[in-house]
Amino acid sequence: MFYQDAPFLKNAPYLSTLIYNPNHIGCHTLGKSESFFKGTQKIEKELIEICSKAILKGKGDFDGYVASGGTEANMQAIWMYRNYFLQEKQADIGEIVILSSADAHYSSPKAANILNLDIEEIPVNYKDRKMSYKDCLNVIKDQKAQGKRFFICIANMMTTMFGSVDDVGILTRALQSAAVEYKVHVDGAYGGFFHPFSSINTDLDFSNDEVSSVTLDAHKMLQAPYGTGIFLCRKGLIHYANTEKASYVEGEDYTVIGSRSGANAVAVWMILMTYGSHGWYEKVLILLNRTDWLCQQLDALNIKYFRQSASNIVTIQSDQLSNEIAYKYGLVPDNHNSPKWYKAVIMDHVTVEKMQPLIDDIKNLVILSNDE
Ligand SMILES: Cc1ncc(COP(=O)(O)O)c(C=O)c1O
Fold it and tell me: Which of 4, 62, 148, 156 could tie 97 with a disulfide, CB 3.0–4.6 Å?
């Protein structure tokens, strides 16, 4: 169907893999997979190892796969833990609840709906977007009183709207104090390729024994092609997501998705290899410097905004801007119908030269409103 002999394909591994079209169905870290696609499966296995060990400081062995995106990877985790509680703890489905902060991504309520699970949010403070120990404990105790015994917790490594980072220790201490069973999944779909480089002492990774699985998304900060979510978990868990009926698939299936392109693993592997860990770290530093610049300009104009330390997202209160300015610069609202916040994500293309006109427009707005 697609022309295979174009000379440029020889030096374009991602494009030529797309054309060869290997099917990466299944989970290749388990050892047995479709034998026709060994070459690209090996690259995916290496990618899972780099992410779980080199980036997320894991010791020991891990399973994982390249998923369609952050939504699927979060759903995979929730599905896996739901089955773990059902099979190992003889839980009734009504005794299991998903717990996340109010700022968590909508993929958790989506997974709750698909997997027929209840979900509960823990409020966050308006100013620092943090959950308090007291609120965590209150929500957990309240859920316990309603018959919940098993908690699937989603901790955020940079939320979509604020870039905020959960204090996972507060959450696990509250769970322990309430004497309930739990598993912790880290949603690093946004921050997984940023936070570990900007905050090297983070405990939202596999150096923390409380963390059993993590979502990363290469098609966000890493700018990989779409279809490059990454699901990672400690060994001994992924078989709870096994579909034995997949008997025609060599090695069976342990994923939400089924058939998927091996080219996606090649793309992410190539991006990471091209930067190298130091190259990517330098890139993160540049983005942090530019974010500092934007914040300094906003401070000088007395504009109210939220920024998590060491993050590249700046979220401005909507009353500090006009809708026209937000629209002109493509700032993302928290709600398209009645925005309370607009965010700017400082990525590769968001240079100081590109941000200066935004600051000039905000300055003019401030001057106009002072004149009124
Ligand atoms: C924190 C977080 N989790 C999950 C997702 C879902 O990712 P995807 O759109 O790749 O499914 C997003 C997307 O913005 C996100 O920011």
Answer: 148
